[in-house]
């Protein structure tokens, strides 16, 4: 999987560079220059989205297990940054979030359960926003084939998430562990099965509080609208303001495209191509759309690089602690 991610990253970067070359590096660079120091405001516009994601995340913890808000905020910050900047996409992001929760001394089965449910909620929100994007696409009177393709894609994503929820509620992970135990016939798998069964039970407990799930979905869905504000702000700075309907289309469809191309780190190439195509539907030139995409990439770097540094510092401290606690071996001297 890691090899596939790296290959996808190479092809994605090549596609993005090809688009920049085709439409002219100088033209795109000139559009980027029009942003000026205003580009430094993008992390602050993005901050409410991250805050909303954290509040949404906090709603799904089982009673009595919710960690301090700074712990959850750091986990979400690092998770979003890993998702946009490192190979492995959402899988690596969820592992990083779980690691941050474990460092806060949360039980392993709780950390795994809330991360799995939160990943499902993220997928559902992307599907809903994909539907919004399709609706905005239809309002442009684009080709019927394009609208229907987007609608089918959003429906498939929604049905996939619904199937994932049903699988989680039916004890899917314990089922897989039992099948692995039968295949290996190893005594070690008894402990694995017990731990996974605990995760399944905790996931069912989380879903047995539907009000919290609905609230988490609503908060995350609303906070995603800040990505629209970011695009409108970038368009304003460039002297090419975009309509709210175009911003909905970009946020909804680009998010769905990046989710579908999860194997490509950061959606490189996918996002840039999507911006150019969707921009053409609303009458915005390709160089402006590429510059707009690169502006969001710049924000990802400004937000993500510090997060990755914090993550690596935290992991290095954990490693040093493990080494310090390791029992010393026998003294080789006579």
What does this structure look like?
The protein is mainly alpha-helical and 334 residues long. The chain has one domain (2-320). The chain has 14 helices and no strands. The protein has helices at residues 2-23, 25-33, 42-58, 69-85, 89-103, 108-139, 144-169, 172-184, 188-207, 210-223, 226-238, 244-260, 270-281, 286-325. The chain starts with a helix and ends in a 9-residue tail after the last helix. The model is unreliable at 179-194 (pLDDT under 50).
Mean pLDDT over the full residue set: 76
What gross morphology would you assign? globular
**Can you write the helix and strand succession as a string?**
HHHHHHHHHHHHHH
**Largest sheet, strands/sense/barrel:** none
The span between the termini is 49 Å
Q: Tell me roughly what share of residues is in helical segments.
A: over 70%
How many helical elements? Answer: 14
Assess the beta-strand content as a share of residues.
under 5%
Q: How many separate domains make up the residues?
A: 1
Rounded Rg: 22 Å
**Total DSSP E strands:** 0
* Low-confidence parts: 179-194
Structural class: mainly alpha
Short précis:
With 334 residues, the protein is mainly α. The protein is 80% helix and 0% strand.
Secondary structure layout plus pairing:
Layout: H1 2-23, H2 25-33, H3 42-58, H4 69-85, H5 89-103, H6 108-139, H7 144-169, H8 172-184, H9 188-207, H10 210-223, H11 226-238, H12 244-260, H13 270-281, H14 286-325
Helix pairs in contact: 2-14, 3-4, 3-10, 3-11, 4-5, 4-14, 5-6, 6-7, 6-9, 6-10, 6-12, 8-9, 11-12, 11-14, 12-13, 13-14
List keywords for this structure.
334 residues, mainly alpha, 0% strand
